Amino acid sequence: MTQPQTHPLWPRPDAERYRRAGHWSGRTFGAHLRDWAARHPRRTALVDGERRWTYADLDAEADRLARGLRHLGLRKGDRVVVQLPNRAEFVQLWFALQRLGAVPVHAMPGHRRAEIGHLIRISGAVACVIPDRHARFDHRGLLRHILTDQTGSGPLRHVIVLGDPGAHRDFTRFEDLRADAAPLPLESGQEDPDAADLALLLHSGGTTGLPKLIPRTHDDYAYNARAAAEICGLDEHSVYLAVLPIAFNFTFACPGVLGTLAAGGTVVVSPDPSPQTAFTLIERERVSITSLSPPLVPHWMDEGARRAADLDSLTVLQVGGARLADDVARRLGPALEVTLQQVFGMAEGLICLTRLDDPEDLICTSQGRPISPDDEVLIVGPDGRPVADGLPGELLTRGPYTPRGYYRAPEHNRVAFTPDGFYRSGDLVRRLPSGHLVVVGRIKDQINRGGEKIAAPEVEEHLLTHPLITQAALVGVPDETWGERSVAFLVCAGPAPGTRELALFLQERGLARYKAPDQVVGITAMPLTPVGKIDKKLLAGTLAPT
Ligand code: J2J
Fold it and tell me: Can you give the residue ranges of the AMP-dependent synthetase/ligase domain (predicted)?
């Protein structure tokens, strides 16, 4: 282990146990890709539209891009914020960074100035990779804004643009990385990455003012993907369709892109999650497995779209990121003639899956059980002590792919982790006799809008900068479409601003669009709990369906 201490590590006895058990393979992602390419060089690894890459191609592409990145000055340990949509280049770049030992910081396509600026600052990124435009948004302007912002962009030196860098002469064209003008040796002795090193940084859904970074190593993340792939029965005939954003932990490694590649299968990227686009790809590429968030499910079940396509090849449909309603779960399997797999996961680690051969009832009413025999789960009450079996409590967890702390956040770690290294998920769950978990609620100050996480305090802080708003509370309430929608309760000096006005205000502050409140309710005073906190339960209750 050569890197400076930026986060707590797994204690040595645990690390040794995970190695002995064979969970941690001691191989880096750069080495894994070499192995896969040697094993099946001519199999198709990656498909994007009309473009296809074999494993040998992907391996060579990763090398070429790694040389280009090194030529640019990137080194082992450098952080690189990657905000790319579902394109093959995400995967190629990701492995190129792994070859160098550089660390991708996964950003979502919907992130805007506030989120990208924050990710750049807290990771200390030296480079940021963006598309020119995506979903009618110009990402180059966003980066220009960050670079000229007074709060600073730290050591950020390179902006790499997939597509047209436009008028920004100091931005690097992604394609130029492949030019390979001055080939540099890649392997250079002591600079080689180690499997215990940081491989990537994911961001937390957040419960405080700003999201934290989650440090994932080669060893732990590769195990995460492999263990999930085994449970899903992936092999070299599997074809995975990346429908949700590829940077999402679910899409990328549960088993997703990495699990499919580890099994020798084929990854197909879908440019958008609509059934029209996805069904065409499923039919054409004989897709066998994909993953969705609950709000997409009704669209996929829509009869008209289904009848027009041949979905025979699709055998497993994973749904996760937010609670799937039991009645929708029951209708899904028969409607699409697939096996439903519920996925309850978190970027912090722990992944729970229903097994493909679980009884129907369990598949439709539970959110699965942990994927590793070495995942430890505690369900505790408000006093921190385990609750009696079957009762709801907060899920605490620790294990071979759940890091013991956030990146560069020692103070937050003291709250978010127990002294013996359990992550406090903030999720309320109940354990069934089979070991499966049912997610029954949440104690964290977060709204889960159809899988997109909104940290209430982050949005509240922004709302409070509005000249008319004196107090703000963002609350999640049940919603037909999103599972949960966000409602801003506001105390204002004058009439409360409307939803559209607030959305524009937050957009100007650079906040991602999905964080804008779905509804605004003006109130005259905030109700308080006996200890003087805003009583969000009571607020939510005023809107609950009767
Ligand atoms: C209820 N809540 C759920 C579910 C996640 C796979 C799948 C999802 C994520 C993810 C992920 C839920 N029912 N089925 O990383 O690899 C809520 C919980 C959890 C939080 C984590 C993966 N599945 N959740 O959603 O880091 O509250 O990861 O703690 O974005 O989503 O969010 P995130």
Answer: 34-407
